[in-house]
Amino acid sequence: MTQVLLAVDFEFDLILFELLSDIDDVTIVARPADEVELLAHCRTGSADVVIVGRYFPGLDSEVVAAISATGAKVLGFGDDGEELSALGIAASVRTDADASTLSTALEDVRDSTVVPPRPAAPPGPIGRQGTIITVWGTGSSPGRTLTAVNLADQASRQGHRSVIVDADTVAGMVAATLGLTEESSHLASLCRAIVERTSHLDRHSVPHAVVRDDFHVVTGLTRPERWPEIRASVLESALHRLAKLYDLVIVDVSDRIDPDDDLADPFYDRHCATRAALEAADLVLVLAAGEPIGLQRLVKLLGTPRAESLREKMKLVITKVRSGAVGQPAEVRIREVLDRFVRIVPDFMLSDDRATADAAMLAGRTLHEQNPRSALGQDIAGMIEDLVPSRKRARPNRGGRGRGNARASRRRARQV
Which of 5, 186, 239, 335 could lock 47 by a disulfide, CB 3.0 to 4.6 Å apart? Predict the structure, then answer.
């Protein structure tokens, strides 16, 4: 007996139902309404084969991969075989197939062995690859966005072609921090371009805003409720694609990562973007505020399985370091606390330069633009020197380029 799930376009649902009713030893388990309900059925192990249509609500390559991961086989149904194949569906039948053809296809798919796809290129070096740095951390506002923005800014000043990606699905603030007036999400556009494979992406066709020639911004979601547009596998592909175009990809993410919570709804996957950015990263900066509550939250975070899995590529950054919060000398006291509770020494400590940070945020500038001598800005410049090799290059003379021109250029976005 073959257990079948029907996940096809509405216009073909009744056609398939009647065809399958004429085939012996086939049982229709369910006819889900969208990808969430579909995956819920697959995870129960009740289906041998899932018949899917190209325009089934929520269907994409990630959903197809998730179906296969449950052990169910996938059979496409439709006349657009190439598009179904692009989603990772190896076998399909046309809409004019009769019961006999459909029965044979079901048996072949059910009895098939899944073979990994052939690599697009032979193993070996594939050219220069940029570095992906994900800026994560605790709650209590340790300054993830401020740090991420200024890391990208300082990196570009040290000769790295840099892009900052706002992948925060809770409260994306990169555009506001840089004074951008973007009315659309570059990240959503980039993810759509990768899913649809509309064209070859290069530095000019990637949706972005320009701060300087070597400092670009992929703005985040314009509204937090748009989070379903950012799927984990697509975001991970986007970050790896950007790493082929830029020397440094800085990713700003939310501190939330729900599946670490045993009570979380497994189908409410709002924070998959955070997990994807952590998985794709070459380095993960874990930020925590240098104050009692921030350090307490850091100790709890470092004890989670997620933090343990990232230990090899994790760098610990303590922000807002000041004696008034933890006593004098602040750096010594913070090191003592972390050594006592988690046996970890912080990799970087950032000064609490609130005056410059507030003025920069109000003006929509970076720390260096606001005050080149800022202690916090110099600390972040030192971080970049330690994290990635310097790429100093001869640059054209920009002495005649005023602040007004720079501010105007950052409001010009190149969109696909």
Answer: 5
Per-residue pLDDT at 70 exceeds 60? yes
Tens digit of pLDDT for each residue in 28-41? 888 888 887 888 88
Taking the C-alpha atoms of residue 373 and residue 370, their distance in angstroms, rounded to an integer, is 9
Report pLDDT for 135: 94
Rounded mean pLDDT of 207-220? 88
Q: Which residue has tokens 């054209």? A: 396
193 Cα distance to chain centroid: 15
Sign of CA dihedral 279, 285, 289, 293: positive
| Domains with residue ranges and CATH for the chain | 2-110 (3.40.50.2300), 131-393+405-414 (3.40.50.300)
Tokens matching residue 5: 């799930």
Output the six-digit token pair for 85.
């194949």
Q: Is residue 141 within 8 Å of residue 318, measured between CB atoms?
A: no
pLDDT tens track for 118-155: 554 455 444 558 899 999 988 878 889 999 999 999 99
CA distances from 46 to 56, 110, 205 (A): 20, 14, 44
Q: Which two tokens stand for residue 76?
A: 């496409």
Phi, psi of 191 (to 5 degrees): -65, -40
The CA distance from 324 to 202, in Å, is 48
* Number of helices and strands in the chain (H, E): 18, 14
Integer distance in angstroms from the first to the last C-alpha of the chain? 49
* H helix intervals, 30-173: 35-43, 61-69, 81-86, 99-110, 144-157
Q: Which amino acid is at 67?
A: I
Residue 54 pLDDT: 82
3-class SS at 75?
strand
* Amino acid in position 268: Y
Please name the amino acid found at residue 50. V
8-state DSSP, 133: E
**Which residues are registered as beta bridge partners of 285?**
135, 315
Q: Which two tokens stand for residue 117?
A: 């796809």
* Best-predicted range by mean pLDDT (3-12, 257-266, 355-364): 355-364
Across 147-178, b (16+ Cβ under 10 Å) vs e yields bbbbbbbbbbbbbbbbbbbbbbbbebbbbbbb
